[in-house]
Amino acid sequence: MTTLRQPRRAGPAGRPAGPVGRAGSAGRIRPRLSRDMWFLVPAIVFVIVTVLYPLIYNIGQSFFDVGIREIVSGGAEWIGLDNYIDQFGRAEFWSSLGISLLYTVATVALSLVVGMALAVLFTADFPGRNYMRALVLAAWILPTVVSANVWRWMLDGSYGLFNTILRGLGLIHEDVFWLGNPGTALPAVVIASAWSFAPFAMILLLAGLQSVSVTLYEAARIDGANRWQQFRSITLPILRPVTVTTALLCFIYTFKTFDTVFLMTGGGPGGATSILPIYAYDQAFNFFEFGKSAVATTVLLIVPIFLSIFYFRSIRREERS
Amino acid sequence: MARSSSTPRSRILTRALGISTVFALGVTLTACSAGGSDGSGSDDSGSGTEITLWQYYGDPDTPTGGPLYDFIDRFEASQDDITVDVRFIPFGDFNRTLLQSAAAGDLPDVALINAFDTAAMADAGVIEDLSERVDEWGEQDAYFPTSWETTQVDGATYGIPHLADAYAVYYNKAMLGAAGLTPPTTWTEMEETAAALAVDGKSGLAVSGIEGAEGATGLVIRTLAEGGDLAEFDSPAGETALNSFKTMSDSGAMSPGVLTWNEDDVKNQFATGQAAMMINSATYVSVLREENPELEWDVALLPKGSEDQLTFLSAENLTIGEGSENADAAWDLITFMQQPEELATYLPERNKLPARDDVPDESEDPVRATFAEQLQSAWAPEGDLAAVSNDVFTHVQRALQASLSGSSSTADALKTAQTGIDEALAK
Predict the structure, then answer these.
(1) Number of domains forming the structure of chain A
(2) Smallest CA–CA distance from B399 into chain A, residue
(3) Per the CB 3.0–4.6 Å rule, which of A240, B182, B388, B398 could disulfide with B424?
């Protein structure tokens, strides 16, 4: 912005604005402006091509009857809201949305609780703290294809580490297929997802924690507050904005998660983990119903957008008060 | 590779971006990243024509992919003009990648596609009509009718059967011997035998029941054995089939793990002695021989049901990408790969069977003979069912998942599947 203002200040005042050209005062300003604008072009083009265009195209596609033939050769028919009416009338769609929300809320809650516990732990000074922190972060850095498959193997009924441990402890006596049972599959993918997201939550919360003045804790200690009271009355209220931001970011990341669940269960068994992104994938690449898939992906877009609006409003309200 | 096309460039770009858009909202496909181009056996000589071939068999160093690369090497050695750039794309990503490439106007010259997807791909305009070339070639009568039928779409030929394979029962000789049992010949016997073999945490029969079309094969075979028609899955045949699998699952004859196993996992269960029998294709014959030489096993024909004993055809068709600039060279490769003497070298390396009746087979391998016999009763979807077979198999598999996992009753699972099948057929 400063570069845009500077020529205006530098330009001699009072001269009549001439036609756009290389000569004349206005001419000196405008080419400079447009020259500066050129530096923005790559960023603008990048955003348009990779973000805006696909988004708008996707929303547009949800109003057309797009099957496999139309995807390849074009000529999709405009059908208005038919795709929406069709999808919103399906129990599987609502079930997927419900499972998605349940999966997301559970994962975010677990990530926040574990992330907060880790953040509080790492504010304490103990030997090897930095190494441990780096180690915990590995869960976040690890590619999903690795972590999801590791979880899949650990939870395998026949050879899984998890069953071996439980059997060793005498808690189970026969193979339990955690990912093959509708009652345990969803909690299993929640735990696997939270395992990756918790370190991410930890980093954000830790940054927040480090900004809390130690004098507050000292004052609280003098007043006789115990650790839990300090946490509840100082840490949590001060960290509230950071926690809300972390929760929102975790929500958005989790709500759109596809790979972890797809690799671990593929949406099964019996649709127990069929979250909305998997539902959209099935519609598009199993049933070649690209228009109907676009409805699901549009909903996938709308939910986090509403949440973000709600979040920014509450931040503004907080700032005003 | 640049390719001329009647579609304007802007529309091509639009569609290319559009198909990617389904995932533009952040749905990542880390796990499904397609394999890169592999240049093995495709040294660019610089002067002749280079054609591309996409396949999902495997990399050159895998038992399933290696023989194909060797086959391509033999083609390149047989002439001087054409070189082939082979690209391996994992099975789960293959159709998606092909569709994306079609939308972008950048299809391979030759695509080795799942035989059952031929109708859908032809319908979508992804592959070329080969009828004229086939008429000129004149070898269509050499193919087994079931295999040839998979290449036919509305009276036109869209592919050439590459090979054929069938599903049969692999059984662990030591485990059956110790229990004093023989391989079952009927499904009633199968239920009893599998239950008797399910001791000490082991299961009697392993099949793939994983999410997606792959997990439907076992139940499709069971339904066909009752004389069932997949278009009418919610029928006494479908009910008997689903109840039969449910009974085996409840009795422990079949592990609850089937719902999480793909065909590789099933092979692993069998290879490690965790499952006494498995239903799988001949693909795993060489894998088992190489990886588990100490395992004593044999193969038996599928059990009979009340009506029939049909197996599931597992096959690929060689097709030419729509608008290929090198269609002639692609056709040369396809016809080379169908020469009986070439197939006679290639097929035993992969433990696969020919789709045509004039391929000399000097092997005296009894396992191969059993698969060849099983192939005589191979089933493939035809007509309307062929165009939407992937949808239909997915619905059948969902019924299996819903019923075995206990999330719905057999009757409800069949009803839900039928609704999906009816919708697919109405497309």
Answers:
(1) 2
(2) A270
(3) B388
